[in-house]
Amino acid sequence: QVQLVESGGGSAQPGESLRLSCAVSGFALRSLVLKWFRQAPGKEREWVGTMNYGSGTVNYGDSGKGRFTISRDNAKNTAYLQMNNLKPEDTAVYYCNAPVFNSWGQGTQVLVSS
Fold first, then answer.
1. Does residue 60 contact residue 40 with C-beta atoms inside 8 Å?
2. 10 in helix, strand or coil?
3. What pLDDT sits at residue 29?
4. Closest CA to 83 of 32, 33, 30, 38
5. Mean pLDDT across the chain
6. What are phi and psi of 32, to 5 degrees?
7. d(CA 2, CA 42)
8. Which of 35, 42, 46, 88 could pair with 97 in a Cys bridge, judged by C-beta atoms 3.0 to 4.6 Å apart?
9. Distance, CA of 6 to CA of 72 (rounded, Å)
10. Is 30 exposed, middle or buried (0-12, 13-18, 19+ CB in 10 A)?
11. Longest C-alpha distance within the chain, in Å?
12. Per-residue pLDDT, 55
């Protein structure tokens, strides 16, 4: 059974950075397509980006282009979402997802406010 556990959320001021983690157990992360999503209050879940297996190439949604970076540490079996220059509209619960197993983490809350 593949399990995903997000961490690293919290409060930040506009312009600051946060790094979210997604710890994967039960399967090798390097062999997984791993996606990040977010859901703001009252809004639908939004795709943030996808890291492909193997080479680890990444595609980003419009919301994070130029500010967000997805990476992974195969030794730790953990994926990361580095978020820079945070904006109030980045406030949301952030989730990681492994589509092949339809596995989701519990989410981690990010609040960006001055």
1. no
2. strand
3. 94
4. 38
5. 95
6. -110, 145
7. 29
8. 35
9. 13
10. middle
11. 40
12. 84
